[in-house]
Amino acid sequence: MARKKIALIGAGMIGGTLAHLAAQKELGDVVLFDIAEGIPEGKGLDIAESSPIDGYDSHLKGSQDYKDIAGADVCIVTAGVARKPGMSRDDLLGINLKVMKSVGEGIKTHAPNALVICITNPLDAMVWALQKFSGLPANKVVGMAGILDSARFRYFLAEEFNVSVESVTAFVLGGHGDTMVPLVRYSTVAGIPLPDLIEMGWTTQAKIDAIVDRTRKGGGEIVALLKTGSAYYAPAASAIQMAECYLKDKKLVVPCAAQLSGQYGLNDLYVGVPIVLGADGCERIVEVKLNKDEKAMFDSSVAAVHELMDACVKLDPSLG
Length: 320
Ligand code: A3D
Known about the structure:
Bound molecules: 3-acetylpyridine adenine dinucleotide
Structural class: alpha/beta
Function: Catalyzes the reversible oxidation of malate to oxaloacetate.
Strand content: 15-25%
Mean pLDDT: 96
Domain Lactate/malate dehydrogenase C-terminal: 148-309
Helix content: 40-55%
Protein name: Malate dehydrogenase
Binding site for substrate: 83, 89, 121, 152
Radius of gyration: 19 Å
EC number: 1.1.1.37
């Protein structure tokens, strides 16, 4: 039986970490694609040279040629640039939108049957554009953000309660960014919702509010510490969980940016919602009941995503 093939489009900080994790977990053979010559080859070789020590047999190849992603089962997209000082949000959007166009065309031509996981920011707008540029069915194009955001929420909650991260479940909805909606009511320790834990005296509302705020600003906290880049270990781990879930048809219920077609009263938009992720990609979108406050937060998050989509259409009218 042939090994699965994982194509990583973008071999920067997240791309390299993805390659290392995918190889260590033997998810398949790995192709690192990047426009920067030498970087994907160098990272691929460096990781391959660790394989005799760690004992895995994945092959790793670096490339600047889309032909090398041919037949990939999963494509994980991190290609693009990060916002630099002096660059406006629209400048960033313009650059990464063009990157999504070339990536979408490369995937359409060489790996049309892959599950595509987009990580490039601004996430919800980029995954929306990537689906259109690639022409792949919407169930096979998803965005990674919710698993990372909820992992941050879970980690902060586990620290607060001094319990295992495995005992904490957390629920995050909406677009990726400051408007994301961590849903306190649906987040639990061993099935006990956070509001009950407040009543039980395990924590206070003020502490939970502070954790929610820290979760919303989780990406910025890492950027402020690193100073020259953004988070990559946890983002890579999140996307690898998605790839593994697809390849093993695990049907995990996880928050991902998925295309809505009527759910939550919305259409033709990608936003973070719980989905069932399995061999058919996004197999089902879970519509949870939102109370008035949660709905208001979700609506404002959706409005922020719509604003980015409108900016994309202005830059590239073919998306309209
Ligand atoms: P970085 O280390 O800069 O890697 C990006 C790579 O993309 C570089 O190696 C570039 O050479 C390459 N690249 C640029 N243009 C192209 C192209 N046209 N085709 C192929 N490759 C190209 O960044 P990173 O790995 O730290 O982050 C990658 C992206 O993920 C950025 O857009 C981040 O903002 C985003 N990100 C998203 C999250 C989410 O939770 C959604 C978290 C962290 C980072």
